[in-house]
Amino acid sequence: MVRNLPIGSTYKEYNNNGQFQPCPQQTITIIITLTNLEKISRTKEIETVALENVNLTVNKGEFLSIMGPSGCGKSTLLNIIGLLDAPTSGTVEIAGINTINMNDKQLAEFRNQKLGFVFQSFHLINSLNVLDNVELPLLYRKVSAKERREAAVAVLEKVGLSHRMRHFPTQLSGGQCQRLVIARALLRSDSAVYIFDEAASNIDVESEELIMNVIHNLAKTKTVLLISHRLANVVKSDKIYFLKDGEIKESGKHEELMSQNGAYSHLYESQMALENYGKGGVA
Questions:
Q1: pTM for the whole thing?
Q2: Distance between CA 228 and CA 64 in Å, rounded?
Q3: Which of 68, 128, 247, 254 could form a disulfide with 72 if both were Cys (CB 3.0 to 4.6 A apart)?
Q4: What is the rounded CA–CA span in Å between residue 197 and residue 46?
């Protein structure tokens, strides 16, 4: 059984027998390490390289964004970090644990303990109202009814849905549904890492601003990984990785990447010009 390993613990490895191996000399400050990561899909006719020689580290409490053009491999990378997919080669270490040797059951338990997810797809239950959708994960964790209700109401207030608690998902806008998904993720206050895959995409401006405020506030105390096609949402990140053709081409803070006048800078300026044009400004 996977134990709830706290950040800052001194355990380092997870061996083939499912046992933690102590490493007393090292305290964990790096929360995620990817080493020589590759993801290759093969058929009889073709080989597709989704990720190639990806190396990155994420420090505890860091706000990191992954971005790049469509098809660059960013969602594949996030799925591997989230232990929803396995690399063809390379290692994935999270909270000091090498996850490569974990079986499916161990991966599921580890995800449940360490990771909070928000995907672009909602995964809501339409037959349950907003409050019940948020409470549901706590029901599986055997939290008392009183505690479930109090926790659910608190997170719904954070995402501006306290007035919609008795509504059903089909009665909400797309942006409100995404806020509901984020409320559910926020209940996982013990998660070491929160992963947001296009959580603020294709929604109304009000919801996008509220969601990004929630993410930025969360990043003050937690490790946050964000994928966003809109570069305006990543400028406050501690570090940005720009992917193209499955490889990390540029990395750094927004200001550093803009000063390099590379692919990130050109894409950002193009997006800003389009947004200004849409608002009636000068392109």
A1: 0.79
A2: 11
A3: 68
A4: 28
